[in-house]
Automatic annotation (TrEMBL):
PANTHER family: LIPOPOLYSACCHARIDE 1,2-N-ACETYLGLUCOSAMINETRANSFERASE-RELATED (PTHR30160:SF1), TETRAACYLDISACCHARIDE 4'-KINASE-RELATED (PTHR30160). This is Glycosyl transferase family 9. One of its GO terms (cellular component) is cytosol. One of its GO terms (molecular function) is ADP-heptose-lipopolysaccharide heptosyltransferase activity. Keywords: Glycosyltransferase, Transferase. Pfam families: Glyco_transf_9 (PF01075). It comes from the Bacteria. It comes from Solidesulfovibrio carbinoliphilus subsp. oakridgensis. SUPFAM superfamilies: UDP-Glycosyltransferase/glycogen phosphorylase (SSF53756). Gene3D superfamilies: Glycogen Phosphorylase B (3.40.50.2000). One of its GO terms (biological process) is lipopolysaccharide core region biosynthetic process.
Amino acid sequence: MEFPDKIVLEHGGALGDFLLAWPAFISVSRHFSNRPVHFAAPSSHRHWLSPLGTPCPPDILRGLGARFEGETWPEALAGTLVVRPGLGLRPDLPDWTNFWFLPGLAPGRDDPPTTLYREALAVRDIPFATDSPLAFRALFGGHAPTGNTVLLFPGAGHRDKAWPLPRFERLAEVLRDYGLRPVFVMGPAELERDMRPANGEMLAPGDLVELSEAIRSARFVVGPDCGPLHLAGLSGVPGLALFGPTSPCQWAPAGLEVVTAGLPCSPCTAVTAGDFAPDCPRPLPCLEGITVEMALDRLGRAGLVPGRP
């Protein structure tokens, strides 16, 4: 069989980064449909890769690690093509033809990672799966609300992307007045930072599959620039994303409404892996400037809050 004789889909990032890469993964798996496809990713993300391939066997996993130990392509990966979309820098590896790094960020560009992944695949003559949102819902389920539950996500991977908790608490009060049932979703980061609301119902999903089920059964979702909102977007669940220091053009979840404070200094960062905006007070003005009324107005205009003009 001509090269490659097997494919490895590789990813080590957080939930949102992974979901932005999922269209690239299904594109590659379709293109090489006559080859064995394996994946190397965090166990929490394997649910969304299992329809595309199988977990890497131990010898391939050892080969992936051995890439960083020498200047030659590991024998355990002979004939293997490793495809790795990523938002960081390309791993410090030789320019091997067996390793495709697909960059999700480009200097001077404000394009979504999915657009850049599509371009990187086009250079390699790989057709992009333009139907990836529909394919995702066919495989994992779509929006199926079971009541008036609204999921509120008070946290984010980086604390400086989060809307102030008192604003969320006030939003929850008003949503109750409209006959909705707001539920605060507590992930590991929120629990660790003790971001619990003073009042209100809370949900702490046991894993990402349980989180996905909760999102799909909700009427809509509200949260900052975070992974669960990307999961909502891919699942066809409507909602509102609250953006501050990051760019909605680059990171907005597909299909969701977006609201910003409209400050001229925002966005100010492309990535939030470390410290940024050192001269700004906390909470950041670009998030504190989003009022509860602004959020409600956008939800009402989207037809998500019953009786709200």
